[in-house]
Amino acid sequence: MPNRGKKQRKNKKAPGESVKILISGPRIQRRIQALAKQIRKDFPDEPLHLVSVLKGGVFFLTDLARSISGEVSFDFIAVSSYGQDTHSSGQVRLTRDLDSSIEGKTVIVVEDILDTGMTLQYLLKLFQQRKPKHLRVAVLLDKPDRRIAPVHADYVGFSIPNEFVVGYGLDYSERYRNLPYVGVLSLDSKWAKKAAAK
Ligand code: IMP
Ligand code: MG
């Protein structure tokens, strides 16, 4: 049997990269159950329309949607903001629109992480113009120290320090999304320099 004890917590991934667990899978699941209850308590009788931001928000959406009782529908939107690295360009561009209208619906935007707030600021402005009945925001993670745009999330899974995290939907160059936990990514400086020189 592989050793899955404490010694394995700093897992070696790609050469020069390692991921240290910050929030375990079971902790994420417990928190999502609580958020789902809170959301249903706030809107006891309404059909809820969850709008997830591809691709990072997908696991959060599927777990959240299955935990909310009553009528739930969902849709997807895609934007690009980050490039291939760990720094945001600050530019937000719509790359895939919703399939259906949100007019008159109780909409909950489901995002993986609230970082600078640029992405959600852009989306909230766009959605508000489409006249939903209610517009709320649920994020799994919040990095308050990085905020530039004054965006407020109504439902927050975990507030985290200013570290680059991967897993549970979050990626580094499209990798690590499939990890069942959220972990802090470390780049070995020797390898990072080599990659940057390419
Ligand atoms: P914001 O527009 O700066 O709030 O960033 C939102 C998007 O940036 C998220 O949906 C993520 O795709 C990405 N992002 C921000 N912080 C991280 C991180 O720590 N790891 C991976 N992606 C991140
Ligand atoms: Mg994202």
Report the helical percentage: 10-25%
Strand content: 25-35%
Low-confidence stretches: 1-8
Q: How are the strands of the largest sheet arranged?
A: 5-4-3-6-7-8
Named once each, the bound ligands are: inosinic acid, magnesium ion
- Tally of separate helices: 4
**What's the assembly state of these chains?**
single chain
Overall average pLDDT = 89
- Compute the CA-based radius of gyration: 18 Å
Major sheet, described briefly? 6 strands, mixed
**How widely separated are the two ends?**
39 Å
Number of strands: 10
Secondary-structure element pattern, one letter each? EEHEHEEEHEEEEH
Sum up the overall morphology in one term.
Answer: globular
Structural class: alpha/beta
Overview of the molecule:
- This protein has 198 residues and is α/β, with parallel strands linked by helices.
- Helix content is 24%, strand content 34%.
- The chain contains 4 helices and 10 strands.
- It has a 6-stranded mixed β-sheet, with helices on both faces.
- β4 (72-82) and β5 form a beta hairpin.
- The longest helix has 18 residues, at 25-42.
- It is globular and about 55 Å long.
- The N and C termini lie far apart (39 Å).
- Mean pLDDT is 89; it is low at 1-8.
- The site of inosinic acid (IMP) has 17 residues, from β4, β6, α3 and β9.
Defining key terms:
alpha/beta, 4-stranded antiparallel β-sheet, disordered N terminus, binds magnesium ion, 198 residues
How is the topology of this model organized?
Layout: E1 10-12, E2 17-23, H1 25-42, E3 48-54, H2 58-67, E4 72-82, E5 88-96, E6 106-114, H3 118-128, E7 134-142, E8 155-159, E9 165-166, E10 182-187, H4 189-197
This protein binds inosinic acid and magnesium ion.
